[in-house]
Model the fold of this input.
Amino acid sequence: MAIALGRFNILKVVKKVDFGMFLDGGEEGRILLPARYVPQGCEVGDELNVFLYLDNEERLVATTQQPLAQVGDFACLRVAWVNQYGAFLDWGLMKDLFVPFREQRERMEVGRSYVVHVHLDEESYRIVASAKVERYLAVDEQPPFHSGDEVDVLVWKRTDLGYKVIVDNRYAGLLFENQVFRPLRVGDKAQAYVRQVRPDGKIDLALQREGRGKVTDFSEELLEYIRRNQGRIQLTDKSPAEEIYAAFGVSKKTFKQAVGDLYKRRLIRLEADGIRLL
Done:
């Protein structure tokens, strides 16, 4: 049985001791799950889904805690402390995640958050992180997406054109400035829609579905929202874009198109200070 360091593994409990449980790690031998992480009622023979990492003495250890990232993931993590070797990131476990100086794009500062890639160092077999994320993106393969596909994105860099993002934890993408209708920050996660996949493998994205499907989807959402609010809302197509986004998370253009759609279907009445359900 091969175990995956830096990821969750399903392991069997083989021995109970005062300070925790020992799990069957196959060729790695028995792996300790400290008592504070042992689920209530756990007994020898049970199988547990545990995360495996190295403790401060470089010993393999298990935990039932959920880290903020696993090996192979990109994540935005906060710097907990810095020493003469590099920075240490808070990733939700007792032992912080190490970023050597050579893997930093700029000197990391305590309290700030950075987008990094989590991986195993080939020489030391330690779990480490790198802020040089381009190195770990799949740039040599064509993304398997089509126009209109919904994807998960992580914002990792602001540019003059818009925002560079990591798509589905694997590919490079770009949200153009004119496709971003709400504030974004480095580290934000969002759902986005593929506009096109370019020949070089880069992905152009939008925060909203394009075309008629987008309007139809939001039209139904808006109609249900009006119903839930006693058949009337105090927003119109002349309301500020900020108020519309705060209420629905869509652009003013999408809101106006949905209002027009519902009006043409004779489902709403437009009033000077709001919209009323018919």
The chain has a mean pLDDT of 90. The first strand starts at residue 8 and ends at 17.
